[in-house]
Amino acid sequence: MNIVKKFLASAFLIVLACSASWGQDAVAKAVTAANNHVLVREYDKAYSYAAFLVRYYAGKEMPAEALDACERAVSGWADELRQKEDSERILALEQGLSAAPQSVKAKAADAISWAKRADEQKKLAEAERERQDEIQKSIELERKKEAERELARQRERKEFEEKEATLRAERERMAADQQKEIDKIISENRSLEERREKLRADERIASQNLQVELETQRMESDKKFRDEMTRMIELSNKSGVQAFRAVAQTSASVIVGLAILAFVVLAGVVIVVMMSLRQQAIQHEQFQSTIAAMTNLRNAQDLSLMALPFASQGMQALPGTSAGAGARMLEQKTGKDASSPPDGNSPEEIKALYEKCLTYAEQIDVATNRKNASKRVAELVYKISKSLGYSEQDSLLFYTVGLVYDIGFLNIDPVILRSEHISEEQFATIKTHTTIGTNMVFFIDEKNRNLFKDGVSMHHENLDGTGYPKGLKDAVIPYIARVLRIAETYTALVSSRNYKDIKDRDSAIRELYEHANHYDAEIVKILDNIV
User: Fold this and answer.
1) What is the DSSP string of 101-124?
2) What would the DSSP string read from start to end of 420-478?
3) Do 475 and 333 fall into the same domain?
4) pLDDT in tens, 322-376
């Protein structure tokens, strides 16, 4: 509206000037009007007259009255605009005064300088707002992308959980099928043991009957021998009486008769002794032959009837000094005379646990490309535990933990596990197997699960607290974790995938001794004695 008024005033002045033939009257009226408007502080109107005067005297010297009116009008108008902080109109004022005298320009110089600074600041503020808008747009775009990535991660997590649930269900189904197979094998073993026990009872009865028969034969033979001896003695006595009578009748035949009598008696005694010894030798040989035959028959039947549940499923035997010794040992523990272990694990439960763990041990060795490493570690754990005085049941239980202590590797990319050189990030991923594994022993029964979790999660802890994942120290680390730490380290030292890094037995043991701050010295000493 002010611009319109200004325009109309200028047009009026121009018309006025024209009507007055651009005379001095128009100038005088403009000076008067400018001064009057200045007096009533109508600086915008005063400036319109001042602008007329500036244009009128453009390029010419302005009279003092006009110059004073212009200065007062411009100064008042510039101050008013400065107070209103109207930088745009102040900059327009600068353009309108381009032809004004220097003194008139000086009246608006401060306001114009302020307007320029304000305009520059405004431009900077606008630029900053634009930059902030761009940043905000970038942030919003990044948030949108992050939300999309989060949705993608949630979908992947959901898919993974579904796959994990499917896999868990499949494992549970396989475990159930395996348990049914084991129960079937145990039932067959019980039936076989009953048949074998019945056969042994029949053998004992047959052996006793045979011994009775042999004893009867011996007694009959002795009776016959005694009857024969009695008959021979009677015959000898009769012959001696007849000879004595003949000697008595003939004195010349006394010496001959005595000699014949002595010879007959001596011959009879010798014959009796020899027959007795021969008969006893024959009876002894018959008895020994019979006992040996029965023993051989029993042993042959035992071997033929022995059924190892591990062999029937293509599994390996438990630790022993010869092939199959571990399986025989575990089967002996499940016999009728085996007592239940102190911790409440029945022999059948230990056997079932062994079967489950062995299946996972084979998967772990495939994933880590370490042939039979789990079984070697488990065997060392078993032997060390036995040497330390643990019971058979406890040692076998520790053995099963040794089979699956690295089960967390089954949820880590096999490419990382088989790499010759790994980055720090990959090593950090590998270290997570100790925590991942605690959630993978779901197939272990509740009463043994804590033992397995201790072995799985703590077998990389060191006595001085430098291990992982929790940095435990000394006695806080349970026995199963300490013995696994040593058994695994020793196995790794003597069976490295890089033949240059393989150590002999003495070097490996020496390295364990040199790091006494990491390993239990008592367990290392036991290992030194058994390997």
Assistant:
1) -HHHHHHTHHHHHHHHHHHHHHHH
2) SS--HHHHHHHHTHHHHGGGS-TTS-HHHHHHHHHHHHHTT--TBS-SSSS--BGGGS-
3) yes
4) 333 333 333 333 333 332 333 567 888 888 999 999 999 999 998 888 888 899 9
Question: Over the stretch 414-432, which tens digit does the pLDDT of each residue have?
Answer: 888 887 788 888 889 999 9
3-state class of 313 per DSSP? coil
Residue 21: left (phi > 0), alpha (psi -120 to 50), or beta? left
Sign of CA dihedral 390, 394, 396, 398: negative
**In this structure, what token pair is assigned to residue 51?**
């602008």
Rounded Cα distance, 503 and 516, in Å: 18
Residue 113, domain member (yes or no): no
Instruction: Provide the whole-model pTM.
Output: 0.40
> Which residues is 473 bridged to in the sheet?
464
Q: How many CB atoms lie within 10 A of CB 28?
A: 14
**C-alpha 305: how far from its chain's center?**
42
pLDDT band at 251 (very low <50, low <70, confident <90, very high): low
Q: What is the CA radius of gyration of the chain?
A: 60
Range of the domain at 63: 2-107
The residue from 253, 281, 307 where one domain ends is: 307
* Helix intervals (H) in 306-368: 309-312, 325-333, 347-368
Kindly state whether residues 320 and 430 are assigned to the same domain. yes
Structure tokens at 314: 């293509």
Q: How far apart are CA 9 and CA 277, in angstroms?
A: 168
Sign of CA dihedral 127, 131, 132, 134: positive
**Cα dihedral sign, 299-304-308-314:** positive
What's the token pair of residue 274? 């020899």
Cα–Cα distances (Å) from 60 to 56, 63, 270, in that order, read 9, 9, 184
CA nearest neighbour of 407 among 447, 445, 359: 359
Domain boundary among the residues 269, 287, 307 is at 307
Per-residue pLDDT of 445-481, as tens digits, reads 998 999 999 999 999 999 999 999 999 999 899 999 9
